[in-house]
Amino acid sequence: xxxxxxxxxxxxxxxxxxxALLSLYTWGSxxxxxxxxxxxxxxxxLSHKGWLxxxxxxxxxxxxxxxxQAEKFYFTxxxxxxxxxxxxxxxxxxxLQYEEHxxxxxxxxxxxxxxxxxxxxVKED
Length: 125
Prior knowledge:
Helices cover about 30% and strands about 35% of the residues.
């Protein structure tokens, strides 16, 4: 085996293989859904934040019974089509549908593991 062939082999093993494995892991963590569900409450905050990777991060205030301590549900929105829907329903009681992705390796995909994929207004009867 020539010296150049050995160099290519080691370059592949040291650089290309780890990058390929990390890419495969990232794709798997963003594709595989750990859990999904919905939360109902009032969107308190939605902001586009980050130094290098800008993501949409939000807070949903969950109020179960009047007079009790409100719980916050932190979420990330990756679909740009959902952002105007959330903004249009600000101040209204909404139902957020989300998917939870565990083990996403970077905050470039979102600061939380809960990714909102749809929102709808909850009509009060």
